[in-house]
Design brief:
Layout: E1 17-26, E2 33-43, E3 48-52, H1 59-67, E4 74-79, E5 82-83, H2 89-99, E6 100-104, H3 115-125, H4 132-141, H5 157-171, E7 175-179, H6 187-202, E8 207-211, H7 215-218, E9 223-228, E10 231-237, H8 241-250
Parallel strand pairs: 3-8, 3-9, 6-7, 7-8
Antiparallel strand pairs: 1-2, 1-4, 4-5, 9-10
Helix pairs in contact: 3-4, 3-5, 4-5, 5-6
Bound molecules: adenosine-5'-triphosphate.
GO molecular function, one term: ATP binding
Organism: Georgenia faecalis
Protein name: ABC transporter ATP-binding protein
Length: about 260
Amino acid sequence: MTDTVVDAARPAGVPPVALEHVTKTYGVGPGAVTALDGVSLELQEGSFTAVMGPSGSGKSTLLHCAAGLDAPTTGRAVLVGEDLAGMPEDALTRLRRDRVAFVFQAFNLIPTLTAAQNVELPGLLAGRGRDRRTTDGALARVGLADRRDHRPSELSGGQQQRVAIARALATGAAVLFADEPTGALDTRTAASVLELLRTAAAQDRQTIMMTTHDPVAASYADTVIFLVDGRIVERMTAPSADEVATQVSRLPSRDRGR
Ligand SMILES: Nc1ncnc2c1ncn2[C@@H]1O[C@H](COP(=O)(O)OP(=O)(O)OP(=O)(O)O)[C@@H](O)[C@H]1O
């Protein structure tokens, strides 16, 4: 295996994402909600994991705890070898900025910046400066070389999501967290976005954790985990979309999501 930016700051053999017996409770007393109830998992380098489950089963909370956007109530979250518990906020911010990339359903691009400026923003914020080759390379990879100077409002939803993915690729982040990345896209556009994510894992060795409601989207991942009431109830390896859909229909819940 070749050394890449992705590996540079992490001891060999340490999973980029690890959760140990994580619980997350929102609120106190009779109104408290247990969003995660003892979740343990390890994601290996270059793996692509989809998290499925009914609405309210804890998918986003799981992703947020793994990414250091939210703190577990009990248990441990370790990101690229760093224990997030008790980490000072500025160190956590640096870790997220330098080693992690996010892709959200709502794209989260800065509307006043062009596609290229959006892609280079994390590097500028991290003090790495402008790197036109990396920016243009990432935009070319997502098929948007000719849109580099367009603002988000001049791009379709699928194009905006591809800019967000170009931004994630350009950072060389070890871990890419994607929360419903295809939720706002049509089927064909979603397929191209998922293909890009799959390549980022397989080729660039980025570790990807993606929440989704869509069995087809989940089938692009190499592992699918199923949450019910904050617990992992099932794992599938390289399932087909039909197998995922069948498993979803078997989940013990009143509400199977959208
Ligand atoms: N900030 C919060 N305060 C209180 N309760 C919360 C908060 N965030 C999430 N919850 C609750 O935690 C549970 C899990 O929510 P979460 O958003 O993780 O589920 P999800 O599986 O991602 O749902 P969806 O598929 O609808 O996005 C839900 O019952 C939710 O209402």
